[in-house]
Specification:
With 224 residues, the chain is an alpha/beta fold. The chain has one domain. It is built from six helices and six strands, in the order αββαβαααβββα. The longest helix has 19 residues. The termini are far apart.
C-alpha cells in the first residue's frame, strides 16, 4: 500500500471514530394547554398559518409546510389547506398586516359574508397559528483550510447549539374561540470536525420540532 493510500485509510478511520463519538443528538419537549373540547369530521379541514407580524423575525413558511405535511399523512390524518392557497383566496384578510391577532378579531371577520363563504368553501374548522424560530448560539472552535504542494485539506473543529422554539395556538372557527396551545422546544449540539474534509454533524432540531408538534396537534384536533 502506498504512503498516500495508507494515510487516506488512517484518516478515514479517525473520521469514522469522530462521527461515532460526536453524533449530533436532539432533545425535544412538548407542552399542551387545552381550553376547550375538540374534534373534526371527515369533510372538515384545518389551515396552518405562520405569524409574521414580529419586527425581528418571522415564522418560516418551510416550517409551516412541514407541520402541514406531517398532519396530512399517516394514521388519523387531517385534511390541511395549504397556507399560500388559503392566504391568496382570503386576500387581504390574512396578510401579515391585517391578519386577526385575537379570536375577537376572527369573530368580526366571520361577520363578513365573503369571509364566511370562503371559510365554508375550504371547510375550515380550525385555524392553527404557528409562532417561533430557530436560534443558533454558543459557536466555538475554528477550521482552517490550506492548499500546498502535497494537496489541499481542512483541519480544526467547530461546535454550536441550535434551539427551535415554536408555539401553536388553535382557534375553533365555529365558535371563534381559542381551544388550546401547544409549545414545542427542541435543542441540540452540532459539530463540524475537519480532518482533510469537513464533515458536519447537524442536530436536526427544527425537523424534530416539526414532527413532534405535528403529532401532538393531530391528536389535539382529533380530540384524543
Amino acid at each position: 500500500m502506498s504512503y498516500i493510500a495508507a494515510n487516506l485509510v488512517k484518516t478515514g478511520g479517525i473520521i469514522s471514530l469522530l462521527i461515532g463519538a460526536l453524533s449530533a443528538c436532539t432533545s425535544t419537549t412538548v407542552d399542551e394547554f387545552r381550553q376547550g373540547e375538540t374534534g373534526i369530521e371527515n369533510h372538515e379541514s384545518i389551515v396552518i398559518l405562520g405569524r409574521r407580524q414580529a419586527s425581528d423575525y418571522e415564522t418560516r413558511s418551510e416550517f409551516v409546510d412541514c407541520v402541514g405535511e406531517h398532519m396530512g399523512n399517516g394514521t388519523n390524518s387531517i385534511r390541511v389547506v395549504p397556507e399560500q392557497e388559503f392566504v391568496d383566496a382570503m386576500f387581504p384578510w390574512f396578510e401579515p398586516r391585517t391578519a386577526p391577532l385575537r379570536t375577537s378579531d376572527l369573530e368580526k371577520l366571520m361577520a363578513e359574508e365573503v369571509v364566511a363563504q370562503k371559510m365554508d368553501e375550504f371547510g375550515v374548522r380550525y385555524i392553527v397559528w404557528l409562532d417561533g424560530f430557530t436560534e443558533t448560539s454558543g459557536r466555538t472552535g475554528s477550521i482552517s483550510c490550506t492548499i500546498g504542494p502535497g494537496g489541499a485539506g481542512c483541519f480544526g473543529f467547530g461546535t454550536w447549539e441550535d434551539d427551535a422554539s415554536f408555539d401553536a395556538r388553535i382557534w375553533d372557527v365555529d365558535s371563534a374561540t381559542s381551544v388550546g396551545t401547544i409549545n414545542t422546544d427542541a435543542n441540540g449540539q452540532s459539530y463540524l470536525p475537519a480532518l482533510v474534509i469537513p464533515i458536519p454533524l447537524i442536530a436536526r432540531v427544527e425537523a424534530n420540532a416539526c414532527s413532534r408538534l405535528a403529532s401532538q396537534l393531530k391528536d389535539f384536533v382529533n380530540g384524543s
